[in-house]
Amino acid sequence: MANSVEEQKFSLKEVLDTFSLCLSENKEVYIEHYVEGWRGLVRFMNSLGSVFSFISKDAVNKIEILAKFFNGENGTHYSTIQSMVKYELDNGLVDLAKRDKYPESGCRTLLRLHRALRWLELFLERLRTSSEDCKTSVMCSEAYNESLAQHHAWIIRKAAGMAFCVLPGRPTFFEVMNVGTSEQVVSMLGDALPLISEVYDITEKLYAQHELLQLP
Ligand SMILES: CCCCCCCC/C=C\CCCCCCCC(=O)N[C@@H](COP(=O)(O)O)[C@H](O)/C=C/CCCCCCCCCCCCC
Fold first, then answer.
1. pLDDT at 30
2. Where do runs of H (alpha helix) occur along the chain?
3. For 197, which of 31, 143, 175, 187 is 20 to 30 Å away at the CA?
4. Domain with 71 in it: what CATH number?
5. What is residue 4's predicted lDDT score, i.e. its pLDDT?
6. Domain presence at residue 97
7. Measured from the CB, is residue 57 less than 6 Å from ligand 1?
């Protein structure tokens, strides 16, 4: 019998393959694959213990908001990040100055995951170039301080800092990725990081062009 989603073993390769489907030929970013990539990462985080559940709850909430949009009646407009931005802006569906009529627009929701993607990029790059005795908690909090932390309130930063302290060591981390030897993990990360960076850069540029990088 097939395993339920919760029981499925995490596979870094599967997650990275999903992210690799994100980019269309003309460099648009497919929301469906983007969100699927995040679902896989959340599965990984859940396998690390309940201390991370406040983080995964927030991520899942944002994933579900976006999934509702692309599965909903206006779903065709939510096929790519580019089409979503155009549709929501053209139709005044984004709260630009303060949260008001559209507190959960696609644009502001995706922005939160986009900022988290930068954290992921920085963290994975540190993992890739680290030696065996490097602490994942240090790599994770450095990546967090350089990215997401700037957008989080003090209380969230404190809670995140405490959660990072119980991250398993690098060898266990690599094992849970389910890729093979450390060398194979490092090589897979080396292949995947340029793609993650590209998805991040395209989204960042698009949001900057439309002055959406500070959406409330
Ligand atoms: C592949 C192997 C290694 C990498 C494994 C990574 C697994 C990570 C999976 C999910 C990452 C979590 C994504 C978090 C999204 C956070 C979005 C956000 O910023 N939300 C805040 C703002 O939202 P609004 O209030 O404006 O709606 C919200 O306040 C945040 C609440 C929760 C705390 C978020 C802390 C984020 C820490 C990210 C590091 C995760 C560390 C996991 C370590 C494996």
1. 98
2. 12-20, 31-46, 53-71, 81-90, 106-129, 136-145, 154-165, 170-177, 182-209
3. 175
4. 1.10.3520.10
5. 44
6. no
7. no
Give the chain's domain count: 1
> Quick check: is 189 in a domain?
yes
| Mutation test residue for ligand 1: of 58, 108, 150, the one with most atoms within 8 Å of CB | 58
**Residue 98 domain-assigned?**
no
Task: Flag whether 180 is in a domain.
Answer: yes
For residue 116 and ligand 1, the question of a CB distance below 6 A is answered with yes
The model's pLDDT over 178-214, given as tens digits with 9 standing for 90+, comes to 899 999 999 999 999 999 999 999 999 999 999 999 9
Q: Give CA separation, 211 vs 88, 188, 200, 203, 215, in Å.
A: 14, 34, 16, 12, 9
Give the range of the structural domain holding residue 76, as residue numbers without chain letter. Answer: 11-89+103-209
pTM for the complete prediction? Answer: 0.95
